[in-house]
Amino acid sequence: MTGLTLTLMKLGLLAALWVFVLISIAVIRTDLFGAAASRIRVARPSARPVSGAVPVGQAAARPRRGGVPSKLYVTSGSLAGTSVPLGTQQITLGRAHDSTIVLDDDFASSRHARIYQDASGQWVVEDLGSTNGTYLDRTKITGPAPVPLGVPIRIGKTVLELRK
Amino acid sequence: MRMTSTPLAAQAAHPPGEPHVPKRRNIEALLLVFALGIALFAYADTGKAMTGKTPPNLAALGAEFGITLLAAHLVVRRFAPYADPVLLPVASMINGLGLVLIYRLDPYNIANKLAPKAGAAPNQAIYTVLGMAVFIVLVIFLRDHRVLQRYAYISALVGLFLIALPAVLPASISEVNGARSWIRLGGFSVQPAEFGKLLLVSFFAAYLHAKRDALALASRRFLGLYLPRGRDLGPILVCWAFAMLILIRETDLGVSLMFFGAFVIILYMATERTSWLLFGLLLFVGGAAAVANMSSHVMVRVHAWLHPFSDVTGQTRQLAQSLYAFANGGLFGTGLGRGYSYQIGFANNADFMLATVGEELGLVGLTALFVAYAIIVVRGVKTALLVRDPYGKLFAAGLAATFALQVFITAGGVTRIIPLTGLPMPFLAYGGSALMANWILVALLIRISDAARRPLPPAIPLSDEMTQVVQA
Asked: pTM of the prediction?
């Protein structure tokens, strides 16, 4: 009887250990597989009707449909019309020759700003201590700031924006 | 110019919203309850197997540790709300399991004078509460891990001092079983190197953060490898060599091995130069060969590693016993309190703790434990990837690397993958200093992960008068 109890307790303990470990893994699973979209909801600037029109399954499968920027487009300045595809690498902006986008702009610093994707998948612009500052829309940024689609980033005379 | 005022006005009316990041504190609370439950269940199981009845102080211990965990949880909830939700529960679970295993080995150790008269478990329980108290204090008062970056050189000095202290003290104070890594005063003993290692990891992170460009770029090419300039590498190399020499003098090989590995890993992460790994490996092989030939202490270990069954009643007895324990455990183990791993004798509740897990919980339980350790390491690395400041990145990654190496060196030594070097299994093994140092490590990771997952503050809006569109 005690032998059976002890065996059951032993197996119970092993099962409990594994359940604990598996729950922990389930908790961090979203991070491990980078399913940031389902965890981090960014307030959308546009008032787009969400419910009703879109089937539930489709919405769940592609939650950020239409909201993912695919390139960085230069809308004005000496480089106007050029674009850089967005990958996993950060994009550096400045007059330095090793920048991703080399700005030929008297108001730009050699390492002016960078644009990168943070862990949640949000594109973020960060000023790298430039002399004349980086503006997101009309706001001078002081730290890393999230960049929504289509909002102009101004560096000197150059204006860039994220596009689909 | 395609910029008209309309989209700008529309954008200004809807500033980019603050991202909603779940804090996940409730799941942490749930996991903590689960962790406590596992430890108490294991304790009841052990008591039943060894004495035939559930231990009388089960409820009291449950309440005591429950309150401790609750305090830790509330502090994290209040002061580090975005911290990683699994670090604290997983560490608590391993700590609880370790307490049970120490309790399980106590009868033999008391009878053979390997533990204090009252047993090692009550001491370890006190250290656990103390460790969690240190954890709580650190989470409350260290509000930003970048503060530590300012004290880089002080960290280095204090860290080296802590590591060097036992080597210069007389052996009567510092020597325990051939390893001079202790400070014993009265009935109280501390292993200062455990705390020194954390300070040195902080120094490495801060220094390499400041110099990483110089180390990675301002280098000469030599035989396809990039050799950095001496003035960039000098301070850190001196610090490292000094620490290594001291540790070898203290014959504390496990710590020196961990230290070396962590150093190489942080250097690699800071500079992204693969040549460092190659360098590290070469240095390590050379150093290990030299040490193995010089020190008889190490030659014995290497011999035991290669031929564990050559002298099963003498020098290779412990390793052979450990291997027997793993074999006896099989897939599901003998059950807590029903194995024979205590016959390993000395350090059966410290360096050889894993043999008891292997025998009494079997391969299934051992794997679960390894996965739990892996979770802590993975969360440390993930924190390093997420956190925005470079010092925090290197620090978190360095802490995770230290922890991972410690697990590998200990587990590898006991299971005969590498020669036995003698390190306590983190959170599992008996030893107050190591336990407290590990709780400090988890507190630091909690603090850094809070900074990593905390959403960015929204940009400060300025009025239109203050900024103007630059017209081309």
From this structure: 0.76
